[in-house]
Amino acid sequence: MKFFIYSSFIAIIGLIVIIFTLDYQSAITYFIGILLINILYIITTKGKCLTEKEKKDETLYVGNLPYRANENDVKTLFEQFGEVKSVRLMKDKKTGKRRGFGFVVMDSKEGLNKAISELNNAEFGQRTLKVREANEPKNYD
After folding, report:
1. pLDDT tens-digit map of 12-69
2. Is the sign of the CA dihedral 118, 120, 124, 128 positive or negative?
């Protein structure tokens, strides 16, 4: 959406500049070209917007992780249930040390459900994991 607003703004400015040079045909061609670029952008990113929405639905909260576990360890653990799109392990802002929890984004809802059923309360690195669907991020305004 930001791209659309930005490019529309540029199109209007370009149209005004070209009109002041009294070349109306170039102004109209320029404006139509920018509008077509915006339409193509919206069409091609529409699927990506849906993917972002689905991505939220396929995010797991993973708690009680061993502090020594890194992103690759967690990814390897979850890959047996489907493709892992990303792993984010939370760190303390001051010390940079891991906080023992993180988030895993799975490729499919089936993989997410399998991971929950198999890994919740399972042992990993001498700790009992807590695995569930991630909640929406809280807004602390």
Report:
1. 776 676 667 666 677 677 777 777 777 777 777 665 554 455 445 689 999 999 999 9
2. negative
Q: Is the distance from CB of 60 to CB of 115 less than 8 angstroms?
A: yes
User: Alpha helix (H) ranges present in the chain?
Assistant: 2-20, 24-57, 71-78, 109-119
For residue 58, what are its two tokens? 């396929």
The closest alpha carbon to 18, from 28, 9, 7, 4, belongs to: 28
Residue 101: CB partners within 8 Å, gap ≥ 6? 61, 62, 63, 64, 65, 89, 90
How far is the C-alpha of 32 from the C-alpha of 14, rounded, in Å? 11
Task: Determine the residue type at 102.
Answer: G
Cα–Cα dist 112/76, whole Å = 14
| Pair of tokens at residue 124 | 């990993």
What is the pTM assigned to this prediction? 0.58
